[in-house]
Amino acid sequence: MAQENGERHHLYEDLLAMLLGTLFVALGITFYTQSTLLTGSTAGLALLVQYATDARFGTIFFLINLPFYFLALKRLGLWFTLKTFVAVLLVSLFAQLTPGWIILSALHPLYAALMGGSLMGIGLLVLFRHRMSLGGIGILALYLQDRHGIRAGLFQLVVDGLILLAAFVVVAPTQVLLSVLGALAMNLIVAINHRPGRYIGMS
Predict the structure, then answer these.
(1) Is 6 part of a structural domain of the chain?
(2) Cβ(182)–Cβ(39) under 8 Å?
(3) Residue 70, C-beta contacts closer than 8 angstroms, at least 6 positions apart
(4) What does the buried/exposed string (b/e) look like for 48-80 if buried means 16 or more CB atoms within 10 Å of the residue's CB?
(5) Which of 130, 141, 147, 198 could form a disulfide with 155 if both were Cys (CB 3.0 to 4.6 A apart)?
(6) Domain total for the chain?
(7) Does 128 map to a domain?
(8) Which residue spans adopt a coiled-coil conformation according to this UniProt entry (predicted)?
(9) Strands annotated E in 18-92
(10) What are the DSSP calls for 77-142, one per residue?
(11) How far apart are CA 33 and CA 138, in angstroms?
(12) pTM of the entire structure?
């Protein structure tokens, strides 16, 4: 619920949001892994590597994010960087554990794409509203925009497009098309609900 007076979040609220947001994202990732689907940004890159090498998503996702924390520290400050580091760590951990917590004997790919994308969108929304992220490409995009004038949104779009193009080498074309639908669901949730002035709680 929006905080009308703009008061800061308490630490326990940030911690609960971090736990809930990362659990949502990890469940979405589990749906995607089960159906061999892709998403964008660093998570998409980690899924792509997983499908190509059979390495674990959690390990890849954690390692890929490591180089970006220096940029986050310079661009967004220590507190944001620490919270983002813990959020990435939790997603990496929960993505490993969730398949052991739920048994998916049958999962329709279209449902996996739309619901998995929606779960990740909700998780990201929770994290964004408490001033944390899942690191990676988004931080690099903000850095390049500040230092070199490259539009962050355009850079992110190009990277996501390259990930999806590379996916054609690793997964079936149908899975790529379903992944695009999932990405639309995820981005719609964030775009509709994460607007300046709509939610003014601070961390």
Answers:
(1) no
(2) yes
(3) none
(4) bbbbeeeebbbebbbebbeebbebbbebbeeeb
(5) 141
(6) 1
(7) yes
(8) none
(9) none
(10) -HHHHHHHHHHHHHHHHHHHHHHHH---S---HHHHHHHHHHHHHHHHHHHHTTT----THHHHHH
(11) 22
(12) 0.84
Q: What are phi and psi of 202, to 5 degrees?
A: -125, 155
Q: Which structure tokens are listed for 18?
A: 């971090």
Quote the CA–CA distance of 115 and 108 in Å, as a whole number. 10
Residue with tokens 């607007």: 195
Residue found under tokens 């749906």: 31
Distances (CA, A) of 164 to 3, 38, 125, 175: 38, 7, 23, 10
Range of the domain at 155: 11-193
Specify if 203 maps to a domain.
no
The two structure tokens encoding residue 180: 């695009």
What does DSSP assign to residue 171? S
Residue 17's H or E segment, with its range, is helix 11-35
Per the structure block, which two tokens stand in for 88? 């990435």
pLDDT, position 184: 86
- What local confidence, expressed as pLDDT, does residue 161 receive? 82
pLDDT tens-digit series, residues 130-174? 877 787 887 777 677 667 777 766 777 788 888 888 889 889 999
Token reading at 179: 């992944």
DSSP 198: T
